[in-house]
Amino acid sequence: VEQLRTRVREEGLYRTSDLQQVLHEEVLALLPEAKPLNLNWPLAVILVVGVNGSGKTTSIGKLAAHFQSQGRTPILAAADTFRAAAMEQLQIWGQRVNVPVITGIEGGDPGAVVYDAIQAAESRGANMLIVDTAGRLHTQHNLMAELEKVRRIISKRVAWAPHETLLVLDATTGQNGMLQAHHFMQAVKVSGIILAKLDSSAKGGMVLAIGHQLGLPVRFVGTGEHLDDFAPFDREAFVTGLLGQ
Hints:
Oligomer: single chain
CATH architecture: 3-Layer(aba) Sandwich
Shape: elongated
CATH class: Alpha Beta
Helix content: 40-55%
Radius of gyration: 19 Å
CATH topology: Rossmann fold
Order of helices and strands: HHEHEHEHEHEHEHEEH
């Protein structure tokens, strides 16, 4: 707000259209401009993290379909072994988008699933692996330790991997999204956000705070249940919708 007042005063802006333009520019500046995704590898590995109920598994299915439409050959790793429903849901998405899913036993070692998935991707000639992860254990500390373990296994098996670590946030969570982002950033190197359940741009105000304070770019947005309700994030369109312009 102070930055806005300074510009209005220094630039002598009093027309409504000028004020709207300056407001648009200042809000846009809060959102980091994303560099191209770091996926130019023989096997690009995307680690996807987020709390249960955020839309994580659904986002992974849509993410796989998105990259498949770009000519990629993805494989999915169901490494949320602590929740049978999560593995089943990912398998359903895999069938829906015709992408192989590597699973383990319920309550088994997520690291073993990831290890098997990397082997499967290499043997089948896949060029992308998308890893689903646990969203809740008995304590927050255990969850973060488990994620760090999965990340280490990936980094040992694939050069410079994971190449992207995407945090799925529910657009309706408000300030709780900031707290979630802090927790996950302490455990893994989050490189971007997938904003799920964004039915209208007005629900994503917390993305401004996350972008400004944490420097995390929004990579994709999910706007509904259908497969095509998912797209790369458009900063300009988001700010326009947020400001009702």
